[in-house]
Amino acid sequence: MKNINYGQTKRLCFRKINFDDFDEIAKMLNQKSVKEFWGKDFKNKDVKQWIENCISSYTNIGEGFYIAQHKKTLETVGQISLSQDTINGKIYHEIGYILNTKYTGQGYATEAAKQMVKIAFEIMGLNEVIFEIQPDNTKSIKVAQRLGAKEDGSFLKNINGKKIKHIIFKLNNKCR
Predict the structure, then answer these.
(1) Which residues contact 94 (CB under 8 A, 6 or more apart)?
(2) Domains in the chain, number
(3) DSSP H or E stretch at residue 15
């Protein structure tokens, strides 16, 4: 699926990431909460690689991380993704999110993730989406659960050379 319009919600609009977003993405990826779960400091070369991976993902599979902007102020609220991941040989479509600390606890992650669910089910016609979440990331677990996702196993994900347990939360398309 290429060239999907990720649209907008009541408070947010979504657009592709580009190199003009470097400073915002660097700030976001180096927040304490992000470093805690990713287990690293993101250097300039890592941020550049992140952006290159996003752009490549748009070209190759038509999905990836997107900037979520506040519609009124155009401030960057965070990043939201609908992207493919392979777990134990099976391809899944995962929803992920990283918010600027200023916007946490205000429903933005749920609002953005709900939009990605809508895209996945109504436009892409997917049967399911997943959320891959570390067990200690209770805020992200609550977002997945608010959307109706149910725990469906776990796996060890390689993050920066370390095998980290992730819980899979699965949301099925009830209309299919």
Answers:
(1) 81, 82, 83, 84, 85, 129, 130, 131, 132
(2) 1
(3) strand 12-16
> What are the strands, taking DSSP E only, across 17-173?
64-70, 76-87, 90-99, 128-133, 150-159, 162-172
* CATH number of the domain where residue 167 is located: 3.40.630.30
Is residue 4 one of the residues assigned to a domain? no
pTM: 0.89
- pLDDT per position as a tens digit, 114-138: 999 999 999 889 999 999 999 999 9
Mean pLDDT within 92-108: 94
With contact defined as beta carbons under 8 Å apart, do 24 and 76 qualify? yes
Token pair of 60 as six digits: 């190759």
Confidence of residue 41 (pLDDT cuts 50, 70, 90): confident
Domain with 122, as residue range(s), is 12-172
